[in-house]
From TrEMBL:
Coiled coil: none annotated. It comes from the Bacteria. Residues 120-310 form the ATP-grasp domain. The keyword ATP-binding applies. This is ATP-grasp domain-containing protein. It comes from Amycolatopsis heterodermiae. Pfam families: ATP-grasp_4, LAL_C2. InterPro entries: ATP-dep_AA_Ligase, ATP-grasp, LAL_C2. Keywords: ATP-binding, Ligase, Nucleotide-binding. The keyword Nucleotide-binding applies.
Length: 417
């Protein structure tokens, strides 16, 4: 009887999520695993490729507390491993793994890292430098926080993704506009702004211990918004700074109680050292999985997780980057698109690992305020991270976006940087 992987949530109907799921399913199949995928009926219908590669699918609301765990316990089949790619499915995975006796992270640890202020408080209590943060119910509470702590400040949702609703505030008069950007009327966070270049750390737990695969350098648009426009992996850093980052991240993950699966930890390098940002008990998005696979030849990212969960030996591949990769996003100024020039040449370039364009003539390009406003991306691989970064920038520069002219428009030809 083959071992069974319960793949909670499968994939979202987004290109990078579908690509990650395809790789996870292929690596599960190579290990002889039977895969059972769960999600709501509408998501399963929208992700036919994932459904078609699964051994079985079931309709389960993965976002309802306790529903996945109750469903899994009621099944006749035994689930040897429980896994999810999606951020919002991590609580369900932890609860379900505990319910069926499979390896997993403690549910309380996942709840902690999914609640941004609780995660900050736990890290601060353990001695890790953290920006001061407060959960605010309304503008008055936020204004009181601004009066107590030096700025600038960040206003952001308590539990959201993709830079949605995140903005910089330098004075109290800007609070109403910042609060209006939040995705809902729930209590929100205000925290002190941290100055310094941003990075993320990608890794996997093996035998309960965090194994760091790479540090990724980030590029973002200037404040007031913080949308990511590029990544370089591995980050070109002196060994002393890289080791400092790795030590802090490994210590934080142990402090928070995570022990199974992948991780993606954000941080800043400040004048005083590493300041940890958000912690995620899953692999990073933004095509980091493709970058890792190029930088570490032979890496099977999801296979590592499955082997670890099933107690299989992890051997035969180096887990240290020997090449470089980069992604850059296409972020033209707003306007109605008339034409795109140079895209076919990008697709034909031999170093391009993946490229996609999400707009076509006639579409309205929105102002860049969140990740969903980016209109495309180019992922490249090279022998070094510096070469990959330079090539990605050159390819982005080669794409021209021509905007329509009209009574309220100026004709434009935009090269991207």
């Amino acid at each position: 009887m083959p071992e069974t992987l319960l793949f909670v949530g499968g994939a979202r109907p987004l290109s990078f999520s579908l690509d990650m799921a395809a790789e996870a399913l292929a690596q599960a199949a190579a290990r002889g695993l039977r895969v059972h995928v769960t999600n709501t009926a509408d998501v399963l219908a929208a992700t036919e490729d994932v459904v078609g590669k699964a051994s079985e699918t079931s309709t389960v609301d993965i976002l309802k507390p306790g529903e996945s765990a109750a469903w899994a316990k009621a099944q006749d089949e035994h689930f040897d491993a429980v896994y999810a790619l999606q951020e919002l499915a991590q609580v369900a995975v932890a609860e379900t793994a505990e319910a069926v006796g499979a390896p997993g992270n403690p549910p309380e640890a996942v709840h902690r890292v999914r609640t941004k202020d609780a995660c900050r408080e736990a890290l601060a209590a353990a001695g890790f430098p953290q920006p001061t943060v407060r959960l605010c119910a309304d503008e008055a509470a936020a204004e009181a926080f601004l009066g107590e702590y030096a700025g600038p400040w960040i206003v952001k949702p308590r539990d959201a993704m993709g830079s949605t609703g995140v903005s910089l505030v330098t004075k109290a008069a800007q609070l109403p506009a910042a609060i209006a950007l939040l995705p809902d009327a729930k209590p929100f966070l205000v925290e002190q702004f941290v100055e310094g270049p941003e990075f993320s750390v990608e890794g996997v737990f093996l035998g309960g211990e965090p194994k760091i695969l790479a540090v990724t350098a980030k590029e973002k648009v200037p404040p007031p918004f913080f949308v990511e426009t590029g990544h370089v992996l591995p980050a070109p850093l002196p060994d002393t700074r890289r080791l400092e980052i790795e030590e802090q991240v490994a210590g934080a993950l142990k402090t928070l109680g995570l022990r199974v699966g992948g991780f993606h930890v954000e941080l800043w390098l400040t004048a005083d050292g590493v300041v940890l940002g958000e912690v995620h008990g899953r692999f990073g998005g933004d095509w980091i999985h493709r970058m890792l696979a190029h930088a570490i030849p032979g890496l099977e990212l999801y296979g590592l997780v499955f082997d670890d969960m099933l107690g299989r030996p992890v051997t035969g591949v180096s887990l240290t980057p020997s090449r470089g990769a980069a992604v850059r996003y296409l972020t033209p100024p707003p306007g109605r698109l008339a034409a795109v020039e140079g895209w076919d040449e990008v697709l034909a370039h031999p170093a391009v690992l993946h490229a996609e364009l999400g707009v076509e003539p006639g579409d309205e390009i929105a102002p860049l305020q969140r990740s969903g406003d980016r209109v495309g991306l180019i992922v490249v691989g090279a022998e070094t991270p510096e070469a990959a970064s330079a090539l990605a920038a050159d390819l982005v520069d080669s794409v021209k976006f021509v905007t329509e002219s009209g009574p309220d428009r100026l004709p434009g030809l935009w090269a991207l940087r």
